[in-house]
Amino acid sequence: MKHKLSAAILAALCISAVSCGKEASTSKKKTEKEISSVQESTSASTTVSSVTTTTAAATTKAKTTTATTTAPKPAEPVLLSGTDVVSVYEEVSINSFLTEANVSILNGSELIDTSETGEKSVTVKYSQDGVEGEKKLTYMVEDTEAPIILNSGWNPYHRTGTAFDLNNYVGFADNYDSNPVLTYEGDIDPNTAGDYPLTAYVTDSSGNSTSFDVTISVMDYIPTPPDDRQRVDFSDFAALYGGEGKRVDIDVSTWQGDIDWNAVRDAGCQFAVIRIGYGYNDISMDDRFYANIEGARAAGVDLSVYFYTAANTEDEIIEQARWIAENLNGEALDLPIGFDWEEFGGFQKYGMSIKKLNDLYALFNEEMAAYGYDTMLYSSKNFLNNVWNDHSKSISPVWLAHYVEDTDYDGEYTFWQQSSCGRIPGIYGDVDMNIMYE
Fold first, then answer.
1. How many domains does the chain have?
2. Is 236 a catalytic residue?
3. Residues 396, 397, 402, 406, Cα dihedral to 10°
4. What does the alpha-carbon distance between residue 409 and residue 389 come to, in Å, rounded to a whole number?
5. What pLDDT score does 74 carry?
6. Which of 132, 258, 342, 412 is an active site residue?
7. Beta carbons of 182 and 167 less than 8 angstroms apart
8. End-to-end CA distance of the chain
9. Smallest Cα–Cα separation from 178: which of 64, 407, 347, 306?
10. Residue 138 CB neighbours (<10 A)
11. Same domain (yes/no): 285, 388
12. Which of 196, 219, 242 is the last residue of a domain?
């Protein structure tokens, strides 16, 4: 009996030993597999983890390090777009032109090209996240301004039996087109006296059009308009328009004939503007220029000169400026030189745009400055408002011609020719009278 119990106990112990050995072996293998798996998964980023394993014999801790690389954020696509259409001659900067931009613009203050109509392109320079780049954008330049009428028929009298051309009776201009086209509706018989109503159309190269009505009177005899203008004594003019901060003066040419400058001075005239010459196809000296400038200087009257021009090319302007400087021969002037362009009644005959005329004045101003002389722009209220642009009226003083008691011209001016019907001792007949604002 004792022997049998020992055998049973031994069997139980043996079974327990087998079971414990199996579990220990299995646990050891599983832990080693986990450690191996963790170690194999180690990468370039740094993360610290710990694994604890327990065996029948001991407790083991294993530390592993993993590294993760963060990819750079991709750059956003460059978004740049601009206005589809701009007006010819309009001053537009790149910043104003752009309608969409998600980058920093490097040349935003530059002006885009609007010098002529048609498709144009501009290169926009930008910076994105410190990297610079360029993108070309295209746009259309269009002329949307209709021609303007400068003379709708001031003297619409046509002599019977002569060829008729409406261009001889009206004047017009376009901001861009140098040769807008004149057409008309209505019938006219130049050989039969009578009044002929016409509707005229002026169309530019972009298709912009202006229309107006004019009645042409075909006559056997062309009448002379009556001169019913009121004459004004210089003394009355000076009392009305002179005073503190102002000076009153006259401007003269050969039309005033022989002038007694001492009498002019004694009448209260403080300065004079004298015509030096005029330029059509050729340049001509005013017949009385030297006599007038010498007489005015001798009488102690301050003076300047003006030049009547019909120039329509840069070469003419350059030559006229040279001629003026040469004939002044270093003469010191008390006031700027007047630029007098008045051929607006038939402006279209000169084959230039309004922009071209303004460019010619800018050139004249530059040329005279190179010779040491300042300039001033002479023109009437109508043409200052409709022909001369802001640049022309800002680069030099304006000499306004407006024959009214109180001008309503709202632009800036330094000189005002208020009357062409002045009367002053020392001059026989009419003379222009001016106010200078000091």
1. 3
2. no
3. 140
4. 15
5. 62
6. 342
7. yes
8. 148
9. 347
10. 10
11. yes
12. 219
What pLDDT digit, counting tens, does each position of 177-233 carry? 999 999 999 999 999 999 999 999 999 999 999 999 999 999 999 999 899 999 999
Domain residue limits at 117: 80-142
Q: Answer yes or no: 260 catalytic.
A: no
- Cα separation of 191 and 238, whole Å? 51
Q: By mean pLDDT, which of 35-39, 131-135, 394-398, 420-424 is the weakest?
A: 35-39
Q: What are phi and psi of 349, to 5 degrees?
A: -70, -15
Our answer to whether residue 340 is catalytic in this structure is yes
Quick check: 71 pLDDT over 60?
no
Q: 244 with 358, same domain? A: yes
Of 286, 340, 430, 432, the catalytic one is 340
pLDDT, the chain, mean: 87
Kindly report the pTM of this predicted structure.
0.81
The residue from 204, 251, 286, 367 that is catalytic is 251
Q: Does 200 share its domain with 293?
A: no
State the burial class of residue 321 (Cβ atoms within 10 Å of its Cβ: 0-12, 13-18, 19+): buried
Nearby residues of 38 by Cβ (< 8 Å), 6 or more positions away: 49, 51, 62, 64
Indicate the pLDDT class of residue 429, thresholds 50, 70 and 90. Answer: very high
At 385-401, the pLDDT tens digits run 999 999 999 999 999 99
315 occurs within a structural domain: yes
pLDDT of residue 188: 97
